[in-house]
Structures are given as C-alpha cells and as structure tokens.
UniProtKB/TrEMBL annotation:
PANTHER family registered for this protein in UniProt: AMINOGLYCOSIDE PHOSPHOTRANSFERASE DOMAIN-CONTAINING PROTEIN-RELATED (PTHR21310:SF40), AMINOGLYCOSIDE PHOSPHOTRANSFERASE-RELATED-RELATED (PTHR21310)
Pfam families found in the cross-reference section: APH
Protein name: Phosphotransferase family enzyme
Organism, scientific name: Saccharothrix variisporea
Keyword Transferase: yes
Length: 248
C-alpha cells in the first residue's frame, strides 16, 4: 500500500503524493485550467497529466531531483544550472500564451500595499522595507512580454545528468517579464546567476533581476506568513531583503 505524502497544504490548495502520482487539489479551478493549457504549449519537459476531475488534477512525477531548495546551497552542477537557463530561454522564445498577464499598475499597487503591511505590522525594520522598495521600482518598467512560467521556484525545476527532466507547477504561466522567471529561480541563490545565464544567453538584465529579488520578497512575505510559512528562515525571503542593505 502506497503512503500518502503531503507535499504542500494551505488554505488555497494542497498537493499530495501517492507513489509516482501527484494529486493537486485547488479551490480555484481556473488555476488548473491555466496549468493544463500552459503545459500543452510549453516547449520544455513538463509532467504528464494522468487525469482531471475538478478540483483535483493528477500528474505523474518527473524523473530527477529538484535543482535545489530555498534556504540551502544548491548541490546541482554548473552544467545543470546552465541547462535550466537554456530551457527557460526556449520557453521565453516560444509564442505567447493566449491569455493576459498582469499589468504594471496592478503590480505597483500591490507592492505599495505589501510594503505598508510589512511596516505597520513590524515584520521588518522600516529601513529594510524602504531600501528594497527603492530597488524593486527598477522591475516596474515597460518590457516586451514573453511566455513566462510565473512561479519558477528552484523546487519546480528538476534535473538529472545535467539536463532538465521536468518543470512543474504552471498555474501562474502567462505573458510577462522574462527577468521575473530568472529572478525567481535564483532567489536566495544569487551565486548561481552566472551559471544560469551561461545557458540562457543574451538579453538578461542583472539590475532588473536584482530588482525582482527585492520585489518578489516584499510582495510574498505576507502571503507566506498568513499561510503558515516562515520567510525569516536562513536563506529565505527576509535574508534576501537584508542582503540588499549590505549591498548599499
């Protein structure tokens, strides 16, 4: 009898693993709609969809190991990181998905709101929030949209023998800023940015990637706290924000 493993669980969704099958339960069926459509369009390895019975989506496990985890050094080779960069480039060069992405005005409003919450609730020192808010502004600028994954966390990219074997969790895929994906994958792993860009090739803007590190960490902190996660663990979002103070 296969054991049931709870991979992640919070008020919005839960993911269970039973053997080589992942069961994703989401209260918003639109998320699964996007995930299924995005995986069909993406020119990179994705999990096989086994069946769907809303609110459950069943997908097969992909081979290999995650590129790393947030809060710990990545044990993946430089070649594996470069392979991830090449895979992301293929995605970004693909035709845009036929649904809208987020607007810059919405993003700016959200950033202001989250920074105000962090200060009002004494989550972080005021100077840390304000400095990162200044840096984050560099990500809110006009850009040419590409097909982005949208939530390209390090645990969502699987590699084996220095090749990408699967990219998972596509519910936030949309037209968007290429630098967002590159920043998300290297969040807390800044030392691997050179390896990633060696595979990605031309067109990456390091300053914008740094701005996205700050923006993602600022806008994600409240969600993490309210859903039972700790952004203050070593190497996680709050460390990323504090690191920007050392750069000043």
């Amino acid at each position: 009898m296969e054991e049931v493993e709870v991979v992640v669980a919070h008020r919005q969704r839960a993911t269970l693993r039973v053997g080589d099958v992942f069961l994703k339960v989401d209260g918003n069926p639109a998320n699964a709609d996007v995930e299924v459509r995005a995986m069909a369009l993406a020119p990179v390895p994705t999990p096989a969809i086994l069946w769907r019975e809303p609110p459950v989506l069943a997908i097969a496990a992909v081979p290999g190991q995650a590129l790393g985890v947030l809060g710990a050094p990545s044990e993946a080779s430089s070649a594996a990181w470069a392979a991830a960069g090449a895979a992301i480039r293929r995605l970004h060069d693909a035709p845009l998905p036929p649904w809208p992405g987020r607007g810059l005005d919405d993003l700016a409003e959200e950033l202001d709101r989250e920074c105000a919450w962090l200060i009002a609730n004494d989550v972080l020192p005021v100077e840390v929030v304000r400095r990162n808010r200044e840096i984050a502004q560099g990500a809110i600028r006009p850009f040419n949209p590409v097909f982005i994954h949208g939530d390209l966390q390090i645990t969502h990219v699987f590699v084996e023998d220095d090749r990408v074997t699967g990219i998972i969790d596509w519910s936030e895929a949309a037209p968007g800023d290429a630098m967002w994906d590159l920043a998300t994958l290297t969040l807390g792993h800044e030392e691997r940015l050179d390896d990633l860009l060696a595979g990605y090739g031309e067109g990456a803007d390091r300053e914008v990637i740094r701005a996205w590190w700050s923006l993602r960490s600022l806008r994600g902190s409240r969600w993490l706290v309210e859903h039972g996660f700790d952004p203050d663990q070593p190497g996680c979002e709050h460390d990323v924000l504090r690191a920007r103070m050392r750069d000043a």
